Amino acid sequence: MTAGWLLAALVLVGLVGPPLCRAFGLDGEAVDLFGRLAPASLEHPLGTDELGRDLLLRLLEGGRISLAVGLAGALLTAVIGTAIGLAAGYAGGRVDAALMRLTDAIIALPLLPLLIVLAAVDPIKLGLPAALADGGLASIWRIVLLVALFGWTTVARLVRAAVLSQKERDYVRAARALGAGPWRIAVRHVLPNVASPIIVATTLSIGNIMLTESVLSFLGLGIQPPLPSWGNMLTNAQELIWQAPHLAVWPGALIFLTVIAFNLLGDGLQDALDPRGDAGI
Amino acid sequence: MAGYFVRRLVETLLLLLVMSFLIYGLIGLMPGDPIDLMVSADPNLTAADALRLKALQGLDVPLPERYWRWLSATLSGDLGYSRLYARPVLEVLGPRLLNTLLLMGTSLILALVIAVPAGIVAALDPRGPVDNTINLLAFAGFSMPSFWLGLLLIILFSVQLGWLPAGGSASIGESGLLDRLRYLILPVLTLTLLTAGTFIRFVRAAMLEALREDFIRTARVKGLSTTAVVIRHALPHTALAMITITALHVGSLFSGALVVETIFAYLGMGKLIYDAILGNDYNLALVALLLATLVTLVANLVADLAYGWLDPRIDYGG
Fold it and tell me: How does pLDDT run across A39-52, given as a tens digit for each residue?
């Protein structure tokens, strides 16, 4: 549960930090070219980056965005995955077979190369109006959609397995006997009972989604600067690794801590919600 | 069994075909039309020239026909010409693919070498201090952003200690094996540490499952030592799960290799795909992506077949 506390702290700081700093008049985007790459000091507790912006403030802002992407992506993944898993598990037969084929096909594909292609697609060519397509907010939405596009498979499989085990239970038969239609049974009766694997899988997926977002941002295809994200803060850090190694350490460390916290939390939830005896030898 | 194999093979090829069409379309949606780029770079090209060039390159026909032309050319062996490298695609791909396979293969083997003993040791004393430590390390392994680990290793070994080069595949002018090995160390280390994390968890879970079986209890009751029980009875039982998981991980190994190659400027397929996509080299990007997909799909196919072949309880007939 240490993970839980760590997470709570991170999320709180991420949410509260930037608005608080802005209230104090500290500007995360203030550029100070004379103070580039400064090491830690009283004025800049973690130093400055390549444009003289305060690193701590950027980390807070970036954290907000990275966390938002992680949570939104996980939510979207959960929704899509649950819908597909529920449909496949409950409907059975050819629908199930077709959906599972699709899921297996997507799982079998190499993730990152395809994400790079998708991220590099120009939404204007797809017909989106330029004003919508170029903003920083658009890059956030794009990332969320992209990670959800591939991430739903784990949740779908888990939900399908859980639904299959619930399908034969008596309450389902009772509901059917009372005349409830398949939709109603699936959503109102089966779904609440498969909630725990969904919660576990979603929590575990947050870490993965954050990692994917950070990789894409690092490669320049995710969150676009000047919007900070822990990933894209590392993009320039590599060139400056000889002059200012601290730029590379902090954003990555925060990604690492957040992801491992979510993973430990998910693992803990799994143990709590789905206990299995561990026999020693 | 043969029927299953044929069916899976057909499915794989079909998927590859569908992917090739999708990727072909997606690449067409990327910003930067090559002809427009040429026009904007050269003030002497007129609009009429642009139209002629487009007709010459076959860019004025609708998408399905363009795709068909590409497909027939590829199937007859002509993989196209890379704009970025000014060489035929096949020439560019060959050595890069080998580099990546070298990176991936070495990392995979090392990761298994680390993960199998660690997973076994962890499984022998569940929830104990050793297990908790190994578990935490494993979590750390797969929670770490690959590029961050790479950067940290560069800071430690290249910037601070100066022992290893910070990037590249080989020294200029040198082609010795030992030299290439020096450049391989950090990329392999990065990829290995990341993969080992996931593998440790799987080995541990597989061992825990195996140790729960009745035949293990029988072996213990018969008086066999822990080592004998683990190595001679439990471990072979986990081999099935291990093979499947390893083969299924080729996909994420490839993605990891992509990032590692980009950080260390290691001349492999991953970096090639990245450069090609960002450099608008469509021929190269398309073929490279399809090759990556093919490798991953083949690994999955091998995993499925190995699973069916090794476990006599599974019957794929019909």
Answer: 666 666 677 777 77
